[in-house]
Amino acid sequence: MDLKSKIILISGPTASGKSKLALKVAKKLNGEIINADSMQVYKELNILTARPSKIDLKKINHHLYGFRSVKKEFSSGEWLKLAKKNIKKIKDKNKIPILVGGTGLYFKALTDGLVKIPKIPISIRNRIRRMQNNLGQKKFYLKLLKIDPSVKNRIDPTDTQRSIRAYEVISISKKSIFEWYKKTKPSFKKDQFIKIYVDYPRDELINKISRRVDQMLKNGAIQEVNDFLKLNLKSNSNIFKVIGIREIKDFIDKKSPLNVLKQNIVIKTRQYAKRQRTWSRGQMSDWQKLNGEALSKFIKKL
Q: What is the pLDDT of residue 1?
């Protein structure tokens, strides 16, 4: 397999072992790793976002990990610009860029191009989010279908984030988000990518998630959140989407015991993994779905 012109993409649900796979591939191919996880960009949350360990960071060059303060928002557009810059740098060294993470929107921006939608005013964004919160996702999705029927069978009814985005776009531009997609041009040729989606049967993934949560708590996640809370960020900040912050805060505030804390983080993480898998079925149909023995065979063929 001639890989000199290729860009390797590795995605999958949380706790599926993406980072370990990326390390193996990078070692074998003399590659470098670029982060494609929206929460691993933040420097103050290392444990909860499951960033690569210091040992792993020393083994292989890693890019776009822990470089942004949680005090500043970070957009898909900013990520795409930095990712493209790092891909070029790595290729200039005759190495293989390997992008790894669980943020589907980042990969879509890279492979399909970033949709150039007019900026959504914060007042409209807040109004739509309040509406979604008050109605609940089921009623909100039905309301979205009335103003943009084209989302049917293209946005999953349970996908809160994409539903809100679609509602924002048609509200401000009077055009469906899918009309904007048609005008989008990718930065790379489709045959440049090798796309790997790491996944496991549901029960196996649940076990992996439980083990990860235990390890996070052993590694000091509670202290990490305690330090984070001292920054006094607004609770509607994007960073509060990181699973574990609110659950650990309840434990610190003595609203829940340790066993409930663990259970709540596991449940939230399982729900997140389910949303990631739903996204992959709709948006990553051309990716190779691999696990176990099939994954080992793939690495050997490289």
A: 58
Question: Which residue, 233, 265, 235, is CA-closest to 247?
Answer: 265
Distance of alpha carbon 110 from alpha carbon 297, whole angstroms: 27
Residues 123/115, Cβ–Cβ less than 8 Å: no
How many whole angstroms separate alpha carbon 214 and alpha carbon 299? Answer: 29
Cα distance between residue 288 and residue 230, in whole Å? 43
Please, what are the domains in the chain?
Answer: 7-114+188-199+285-301 (3.40.50.300), 122-182 (1.10.20.140), 203-275 (1.10.287.890)
pLDDT tens digits for range 22-78 = 999 999 999 999 999 999 999 999 999 999 999 999 999 999 999 999 999 888 889
Q: Which of 239, 230, 248 is nearest to 71 (CA)?
A: 239
Which residues, in sequence order, are bridge partners of residue 98? Answer: 8, 33
First to last CA, the chain: 6
DSSP state, residue 238? G
H or E element in which residue 179 lies: helix 177-182
Q: Are 28 and 301 in contact (CB under 8 A)?
A: no
Cα 244 to Cα 216: distance, rounded to the nearest angstrom = 10
Say if residue 203 is exposed, middle or buried (CB neighbours under 10 Å; 0-12, 13-18, 19+): exposed
Cα separation values, 148 from 80, 133, 138, Å: 27, 19, 15
- Residue matched to tokens 């739509």: 128
CA 271 to chain CA centroid, nearest Å: 14
